[in-house]
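JOB MANIFEST
job_type = single_chain_structure
chain_count = 1
residues = 188
[input]
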Amino acid sequence: MQDTSPLKPRIALQAFSLTEKDLRRALAALSEPELLRLQAIARLRCRGLPGLEWQELLHEAVLRALDGSRPWPPGVKLVAFLAGIMRSLRSDHWRRHRTMAAALALQAAEVADQPPDPERIAAASQALAAIDRLFADDPAALAVILGLSQGLSAEEIRRRTGLSETDYDSTRKRMRRALLRHGLTGSP
């Protein structure tokens, strides 16, 4: 009779990976250049990734390694192992983001097909007035909002407004934080 225990694959995997204790020691022994390399990799992996900061990505990679969900194979350097986890997490995040964006687009299309009722018109007017008040002193944010409302891409908005990529990204982050801080939702 064959053993079909659900623990058997996990036990077999552990035989070919380093232990949590080994991982903790290796993490504690990381040199300053190795830590900087991990930070740089995390920053690179998060560039253009909506809703995820590089620190979160790096911490999640370490957490996955420590909890054993990503076993550390012998012979693989720790920095390369964590970089691989970050690459995988980035792919997972993009996949979830694309799925959610597709679902939201479908939902938005369904809502757009319906004629607006007075309640929706009033709510939209109030939201727009609140956004105008919120960003009245921020011409860059207003320019980005205008471009987004016209359906322009980030590149087109940057070209029209003269914002650099960094300035555009900073404006978007500033807008997102302001909207969240004031209880307004959306994805600027």
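[summary]
Residues 78-113 form the longest helix (36 residues).
The chain has nine helices and no strands.
exit_status = 0
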